[in-house]
Design brief:
Helix content: over 70%
Number of helices: 18
Structural class: mainly alpha
Distance between the termini: 43 Å
Largest sheet: none
Low-confidence stretches: none
Shape: globular
Oligomer: single chain
Number of domains: 2
Strand content: under 5%
Radius of gyration: 22 Å
Length: 466
């Protein structure tokens, strides 16, 4: 037992430090999952920090400033959809080439991803920078909010390039198996943002107080610093992927393949996002307390499942690399084992949420009615955690194989054709109120897990060519 324990902690240390020589198509699957999942979990937590830090400091400027940040974050859903779609395709393509031991092909694919990111970022950044006030107005912002936050919105949307490159290049690292580098990139970017945020918002000495616009500038500098770190890694010898001059050419065949996989990946993300927006609309029909309780519960849930996304991303990399190495059985075993570990984790979290949800909700509010709804929502959603564990991993496994169509169809069916109608039926049609909308979530997630497992068992993903 002592040797097994020491071996586990040695793997944890290697995961954080980065094991440059590990071959994820050979050896222990458990060790491979640890080496990939731990830095990916920490990377996910770091990505969420950008928004959290901004809200923390901007909240001290008043409701208009905070509203501007919230509306800008809502508009960023489109940017994140594009970034997530390209990232899914990039991870799959890079992992496949690495598994095939085609380092040159991986480098060419990496450059196509970065070039595609430049093209798409320009399409977002130019109108975002030029029409920031009009975009806030279209989102329903009052004039006071527009005056307070237009500068922030202009900085954030106008710098879409740093967002896309940050996502894309970290996806390259993950696909190559360099998860620890992706983690350190976000550590560095967040450290810069956390230092600059209060300095630029409130000022210090010769640094003027820029208010909410300062938060936008700090975030842009933080993300851009992280991108500079990524470029430094690529141009050096610290990654499995090395970009040399001979790789820096447009390959329309590879870029076309990448864009085809990315497009359905973007749709996949937008389908899930739109479903959550629909649920908000249904819950809002009942009372502001119900909506506040739902919002608090979802924030707790989203933070709690970040480690699960890390595990799911690890499964995607293992699937891609092992398909490239022509080891589909090992790829399949990696998915089932990762899903089992995810079930252990989410099962434990679910038990906590079911047993003591009030303690968690009261961290955010003490209003009795809001607490009542938040507790109910947290407890009800937790009943589906075991199913959600398998659903997350199987969906990402398809993405890792380069099959973004299957999870997109699953999302369309389970979220739009099942979850939203079921939420309305239970909430309004059957008179269960907001609790009915809450129940639609574990029901839909259970359906998604069942559909994902069924489609995964069919095994068609093993023949996916990218």
């Amino acid at each position: 037992m002592g040797q097994r324990s020491s071996g586990f902690w040695a793997d944890v240390r290697a995961a954080i430090a980065g094991d440059e020589h590990h071959d994820f198509t050979e050896g222990s699957l458990t060790r491979a999952i640890i080496l990939l999942a731990i830095p990916m979990v920490l990377e996910m937590c770091m990505e969420s920090l950008f928004g959290i830090v901004n809200v923390f400091w901007v909240a001290r400027l008043g409701s208009n400033a905070l509203a501007a940040v919230a509306l800008t974050e809502a508009m960023l859903a489109l940017v994140f959809a594009v970034a997530m779609g390209i990232s899914m395709a990039t991870t799959a393509l890079i992992a496949r080439r690495i598994g095939e031991k085609d380092a040159g092909g991986a480098s060419v694919a990496a450059f196509q991803s970065i070039a595609l990111g430049f093209f798409l970022a320009a399409a977002i950044a130019i109108p975002g920078f030029l029409f920031a006030p009009q975009l806030l107005s279209a989102m329903g912002a009052e004039q006071a909010v527009i005056q307070a936050g237009a500068g922030y919105t202009r900085w954030i949307l106008g710098n879409a390039l740093s967002i896309l490159l940050l996502f894309i290049m970290n996806a390259i690292f993950r696909g190559a198996g360099d998860a620890a580098i992706a983690m350190r990139v976000l550590w560095f970017g967040n450290a810069v943002n956390m230092v600059l945020d209060p300095l630029l918002i409130f000022g210090l000495g010769p640094i003027p107080a820029l208010g909410v616009e300062g938060a936008g500038i700090a975030t842009v500098i933080g993300r851009s610093s992280a991108v500079a770190y990524q470029v430094w890694v690529f141009l050096g010898s610290r990654s499995r992927i090395r970009l040399e001059r001979r790789h820096m050419r447009i390959d329309l065949t590879v870029m076309g393949r990448l864009f085809g996989v990315s497009a359905t990946g973007m749709l996949q993300y937008l389908v899930a996002t739109a479903s959550w927006v629909g649920l908000v609309r249904i819950v809002a029909m009942f009372s502001s307390a119900a909506l506040a309780g739902y919002t608090i519960a979802i924030r707790i849930i989203v933070f709690s499942i970040l480690p699960s996304w890390g595990l799911a991303n690890a499964a995607a990399t293992l699937v891609g690399q092992n398909l490239g190495a022509r080891k589909p059985e090992r790829a399949e075993s990696a998915v089932w084992r990762t899903a089992l570990y995810n079930m252990y984790f989410l099962g434990a979290i679910g038990l906590i949420f079911i047993a003591v949800p009030g303690l968690l909700v009261r961290i955010f509010t003490n209003e009795p009615e809001v607490v009542r709804y938040g507790v109910a929502c947290l407890r009800i959603i937790s009943y589906g955690y075991l199913f959600y564990a398998y659903g997350m991993v199987t969906v990402q496994a398809f993405n890792g194989a380069g099959d973004t169509r299957t999870p997109t169809w699953i999302n369309l069916g389970c979220y739009w054709l099942f979850q939203i109608p079921m939420a309305w039926l239970l909430a309004k049609g059957m008179g269960f109120g907001a609790h009915g909308a809450f129940w639609a979530i574990p029901l839909a997630e259970s359906a998604l897990a069942a559909a994902g497992i069924w489609a995964f068992r069919l095994g068609r993903w093993k023949q996916q060519v990218i």
